[in-house]
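Submission checklist for the structure archive. All mandatory fields must be present; incomplete records are returned to the submitter.

[x] Identifier: Mitochondrial inner membrane protease ATP23
[x] Organism: Podila minutissima
[x] Residue count: 240
[x] Sequence attached
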Amino acid sequence: MAASHPSESSLPSEASAEAPTRASEAGTSEKEAKEQKAFDRWRKTLSLITGLGLSPEEFQAEIEKADRKTCELYKEQLIKTSPGVRFMMNNLVKAGCPLTKNMLDCGPCDSTKSGGFSPDHGILLCQNGFFSKKHQEHTMIHEMIHMYDHCVFNVEWDNLRHHACSEVRAAALSGDCNWSREVRRGFYTFTKQHQECVKRRATLSVQANPNCTSRAAAEKAVNAVFDSCYNDTRPFDEFY
C-alpha cells in the first residue's frame, strides 16, 4: 500500500506559521515603544524639576513652553466659563471695541507683572506671572477694564490722573483686591481693607508710568481721583 502523504493544502503555510511570530514581535515593539515614550516623558519631567541634562537655555525654553501651554489652556477655559470674563467681553462688544482671542496673548514678562494693556496691541497675559487659574481670571478682567475705559472714556494714558482713575477702577472691580488675595500678599486689616488695597495697587501702577516722576506724584494722582473713580463701577452694577 502506498504511504499516504498529507495533501499540500493540509500543510501549514509558511505565512500562517510566521504570523504568530510576527504578531508577537509587533506586540513587543509596540510595548517597547510605549515604555520608551513613558521613560522619555519621565526623564523630561525630571529634567524640568532638577535642570539636569539641560543647558540653561534649554531649561528656560522648556519652562516658557510649559508656562505658555498652561496660560493658553486657562485662557480658553475662562473665556468659556468665567462669568466675569464673559461679562466684560460682552460689554466690550456693546462699547464697540470687541476683544478677540487673538488680542489676548500669553507671553513671558518680568517677575513684577501679571498682565498689561496696550491700545495698539491688546492684552498681554504674563504666562510666568500666575500662581493659579483664579489669579489669571482676575488679571484678564483687570486688563479688560483698562480696555473698556480706553474705548468708552478715551483715556489719555500719559495723563497721570486719567491713568490713576483706570487703575483704581481695575483694581476695585477685577477681584484683584479681594480678601484672600490680600492675605496672600501679607496685607490684612479689618477696616477699609478693599479701599486701601485699591489705593496701593493703583499707586504702584501709576508710579510705573514713564511720565510719573515719583511715588509721591503717583499717590497725589490716585488720591485726587479716588472717590469718584472707586465708586464708578461701570459696566458692573457692583464690585465683582
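[x] Structure attached
Curator remark: Confidence is low (pLDDT under 50) at residues 1-15. The first helix runs from residue 14 to 50.
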